[in-house]
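Obj: model holo form, ligand = zinc ion.
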Amino acid sequence: MTCCEHLDDAIERGAFYFGAKHRIDDGRIVNDISTEYFIKAASSRGFDYYGVNYCPFCGRALSVGLWQAEKKK
Ligand SMILES: [Zn+2]
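Output (holo structure tokens):
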């Protein structure tokens, strides 16, 4: 499903969120980038979601937006 087992593991543990941006309803998105992958961190009100374009573990491109941007080059 994902690029590497570390990311799979992080999603399973709830440290990482994978899914549509508009489905996030228990926190706020910190940075507005086009991605479906977010680092999830507890904050004073719910959670903070940090969008990421690359896997922090293996470095591969994750987001659909980035794939499209790279295709246009
Ligand atoms: Zn990875």
